[in-house]
Design a protein that fits this description.
By secondary structure, this protein is of the alpha+beta class. A hairpin with a 7-residue loop joins β3 and β4.
Length: 139
Amino acid sequence: MAHDQEAMLTGIITALSVTGAGTLYESVGGRIYRTAAPSEDALPLVIVSVADDTPDRYMPTSADIEATINISVFGKRDASETTLQAIAAKCIAALESVGITIAGHETGSMWIQNRGITLYDDSRVQITTLWGIQATATA
């Protein structure tokens, strides 16, 4: 199962890491991480994680997988919330209508479950979107 989780996260991060002017990658300076960011990394940044720790299989013997994914955008508290919302929107645009390449599976698909929950602490703002992902094992 850990392999499935790594394969999912790799596929999602690859889809989010398209480079070029105006891309998510450019907006966060390439700071797109799986599960956690380095403790002293600059903001803004994106963290992609599996919400329920382990991808599910449809049946115990099935190699088809599905999971719930959190994608969180972090920025400085004094940054414009509009700027962070624009970065979160780039995450959505990058994933909403593309296939996700997941090793050992046919192209995976993602669907958005929640378009953004905003949380504040003393120094940061976090906008998290919640996604579902599904992939069918290759024969």
